[in-house]
Amino acid sequence: MAVTIPEGQVYLDNASTSFPKPDAVSDAIGEAVRTVGLTTGRGTYFCEINPDDITAKVRRMLARLINADNPRRIIFTYSATDSINLVLFGTLGEGDHMLISALEHHAVSRPAHYLRETRGVAFDLMPADSDGRIIPERIAEVVKPNTRLACISHVSNVAGTIQPVADIGAELKRLDIPFMLDASQSAGCHAIDVKAMNLDVVAAPGHKSLLALPGSGMLYLSERMKPAPFRVGGTGVKSELYHLPPELPVYYESGTPNVLGIIALEASLGFIFKETVDAIERRHQRLCGRVLGALQELPGVSIVGPTDPAIRAPVISFNVEGFSPKELSELLAEKYHVAHRGGLHCAPMAHEFFGTTEYGGAVRVSPAFLTPDEEVEYFCDVLEEVTADLA
Ligand SMILES: Cc1ncc(COP(=O)(O)O)c(C=O)c1O
Asked: How far is the CA of 100 from the centre of ligand 1 (A)?
């Protein structure tokens, strides 16, 4: 029986950006835009929504989310890319070396290549197993006397691979190498504990699994991280100085921040704490099991990366025999109205690693906590229909 195609879209592209958002997010930003001038540290507020208070509160919430003691070490940025760039460009110079994983997004791999070309910064990949999971005991093989930083994505945006972050952190601590986590696909849906995981840097955007808006991001810096600032300008405080006030967070927060994004984060983090990260992760694991299970039953489908839901997230890339990713993408979007992402996903290294570059990448679906079950079932039915002739 043919599937019934909905008039609207079925949204399975949460790895690009989360949708839908919790109702509390749209309510909060609508109310804020109607009620208050959107800046912080630069004005006086005479209404209940006070951006200064909200900014301080969201710093505390983000610190709690990653078990950091000092909220002043949470910096507001504009995206994960912004956070990562701040640390890489502010830390690494001529003659330095860094470690990354084979599954990095361009937010890491492009700065790594750029720094290699412009500053002679070298990098190596940490050894990994066939699922792309780093093997902590083998990290020492690629460490050099000038290794200044290790940077990995917690969850791969191509294969969903979850890195064994606590074990990697323990080994990097032993080797005395600062550890940066790109938590773009994990903040809000996987436990992150800067102490237990020995993390020095956590970077995440607001608009993915933190369920808030694009144009917002967070950066955590441990005491030993002292990157040079990326932007220099007005901070709203100490206007008499011609240099940046040295204290955190303002040292890294020149310019008017994305106050609306911060207000959205207050609402989305409230939602995440109420639901709990554990429950969100459990639902993600169930969704992952359901989609992987369905895809594995079908003829001609090859899944990119691990097939065990215990070590991967529902960021699921796959190919179907007889279709290029582009053809399959067009079919899913145009005929079946499934929002998803095809191609190389800004992560050509990951596709290289999994051998999918020659096909032009893969098609990726990424259901998440707020995806209705029926939409996941619809996608499974669509794939059954698409592959019916391959049996
Ligand atoms: C693993 C990973 N890192 C970094 C980013 C960059 O996020 P943003 O574009 O919000 O800066 C993404 C976005 O897809 C990602 O998946």
From this structure: 15
Q: How far is CA 10 from each of CA 269, 324, 373, 378, rounded to the nearest angstrom?
A: 25, 22, 11, 8
Q: Is the CB of 305 under 6 A from ligand 1?
A: no
Do 102 and 201 belong to one domain? yes
* Domain extent for 375: 10-21+276-390
- Shortest CA distance to 164 belongs to which of 150, 172, 154, 177? 154
pLDDT beyond 80 at 45: no
pTM exceeds 0.90: yes
Report the CATH number at residue 285. Answer: 3.90.1150.10
What pLDDT, on the 0 to 100 scale, is given for residue 236? 84
Indicate whether 42 pLDDT > 70. Answer: no
Answer yes or no: is 2 within a domain. Answer: no
Q: How far is the CA of 322 from the centre of ligand 1 (A)?
A: 30
pLDDT at 13: 98
216 lies in the same domain as 338: no
Name the residue with the closest Cα to ligand 1, atom 15. Answer: 184
State which ligand 1 atom lies nearest to the alpha carbon of 205.
Answer: 10
pLDDT in tens, 120-161: 999 999 999 999 999 999 999 999 999 999 999 999 999 999
Domain boundary among 226, 255, 275: 275
Pair (264, 301) in one structural domain: no
Residues 6+ apart with CB under 8 A from 321: 299, 300, 301, 302, 390
- Same domain for 101 and 146, yes or no, is yes
Q: How many helical (H) and strand (E) elements, i.e. helices and strands, does the chain have?
A: 10, 13
